[in-house]
Amino acid sequence: MIWAAFGYNGKTPIIWFPPKANAATYQDILEFVLDKYGDEIGGENFIFQHDNAAIHRAKTVKAWFQAVNIEVLTLISSKIFGEF
């Protein structure tokens, strides 16, 4: 599996991680990449967006975003509105 991020000022390198990644693995990637590239690619007060994958919704990941004061864009499930 791969992970990358982009913003209006640039992009991160592609990060390879295990196909059976868990919330801890995802959080490790976030800590490494966003600490190093977050402000550079998205500005000082960027808003992070990810999809509704289970590891993205984990309590530990949500708590980490709050602890480091990174705003996360809330996505509404397509199950509520149906397919477009």
TrEMBL record:
InterPro entries per the UniProt record, alphabetical: RNaseH_sf
MF GO annotations: nucleic acid binding
Name of the featured protein: Transposase
